[in-house]
Amino acid sequence: MSRPRTPVVLAVLAAALLASAVAGLALGPVRIAPGQVLDIVLGGPGQRTGAFASIVWDVRMPRVLLGAVVGAGLAVAGTVLQALVRNQLADPFLLGASSGASLGAVLVIVFGAGAAGTVGALGGIGALGVPAAAFAGSMGALVAVYAMARRGATMTTGRLILAGVAVQYILSALTSLVLVLAAHPDQIRSVLFWTLGGLGGARWDELALPAAALLVGTALLTALARPLDLLLAGEEGARTLGLDTGRFRAAVFVLTSLVIGVLVAYSGAIGFVGLMVPHAARMVVGAGHRALLPVAALGGAVFLTLADLVARTAAAPEEIPVGVVTALAGGPFFLWMLRRSTRVEGVAG
Q1: Which of 8, 155, 316, 342 is the least crowded, having the fewest Cβ atoms under 10 Å away?
Q2: Rounded to an integer, what distance in angstroms lies between the CA atom of residue 349 and that of residue 346?
Q3: Which residue blocks in the chain are alpha helix, DSSP H?
Q4: What is the pLDDT of residue 271?
């Protein structure tokens, strides 16, 4: 019954994304009428000169596009992680993947590539080193949480949450240590950027890699929709239907970690997008991943675009880190999810 509704849901989300993008381009310290924004974006070269055009094209457009890409990628990653561990409380942030990616990126910034605030500012090896280190940190965190949460052939909600919290504490402590050891104020600001998450440093020349990671990762994961659906039947059921669960999980963990690492390398650690959006998408189109993944991607893009708009305007002229906004929304949502979960038994399951 969900299939006939999926195209409609995708169309509604695409319209919502367009509306949120126009709002993101129009609102800010300098407000521009939505009609004028559309004229600047859709008009000819003559419409792309002047102060307003510079604000739209050079400042706000890269930020809106990066927010949409990161939001979509985190939502897709969260959807896949929830299938891999068969738990709707799984999330790149809660499982330590985002924190691990942030730590890897911070280590490169402070000890490897110098005091650069963004990936685009890193020259030479540093420009590739930050995403590579973020991927390594993301992968290491996911493997550690998965290993600690698994007891024999089972994995409970309680153990997964405790393992994720433990890994996050360790990674946060290591990041704080790096902050203490940072020698320059620019490095300290960079570390704070990675820990709080933000889209303020978005630039046109930084969009290609995260966009490619999103498109390629989402396409590959959507192609794996059937085996992801098989995992929902349980370990034994998936094996009976011919899926090598161990090898499949390992391969998808690597792919998901790569997507998370690249995105976090450009946005910092932004939490709870991968928790809330997949759950909302699942309520609308069901658990089948062929429909769920594109719906989650568009939903994540809309959510983070709007969250960044709130971050820019709620306390203007000051700017709130977008990771703070998503945490304020995601924290209560996580507690609600935890309370209604019927699989939590005791503290460690």
Answers
A1: 342
A2: 5
A3: 6-26, 34-42, 51-54, 61-84, 97-107, 125-149, 157-181, 185-196, 208-223, 225-231, 235-240, 245-267, 273-285, 289-313, 322-340
A4: 86
Residue 286 DSSP class: -
Residue closest to 27 by CA, chosen among 58, 67, 66, 55? 55
Element (H, E) at 243: none
Work out the end-to-end distance of the chain between its first and last CA atoms, rounded to an integer number of angstroms: 34
Measure the CA–CA gap between 229 and 248, rounded to whole angstroms.
12
What are 154's strand-pairing partners? Answer: 151
* Total residues found in the chain within this entry: 349
pTM reported for the whole predicted model: 0.85
Say which amino acid occupies 124: G
Contact 77, 297 (CB under 8 A): no
Q: What is the Cα Rg of the chain in Å?
A: 20
Q: Which two tokens stand for residue 23?
A: 């709002």
Give φ, ψ of 49 to 5 degrees: -120, 155
Residue 315 has phi, psi (to 5 degrees) of: -120, 30
- What separation in angstroms does the CA of 24 have from each of 33, 72, 120, 233, 270? 11, 16, 22, 41, 18
Closest by alpha carbon to 256, among 80, 130, 36?
Answer: 80
Angle ∠(275,13,300) on CA atoms, nearest 5: 25
Count Cβ atoms within 10 A of the Cβ of residue 22 and give its class: 0-12 exposed, 13-18 middle, 19 or more buried: middle
Q: Convert the pLDDT of each residue in 70-127 to its tens digit.
A: 999 999 999 998 998 887 877 887 778 878 888 887 888 777 754 334 444 444 445 5
The closest of 33, 46, 159, 167 to 98, measured between CA atoms, is 167
Q: Which residues pair with 151 in a beta bridge?
A: 154
Residue listed under structure tokens 């460690």: 348
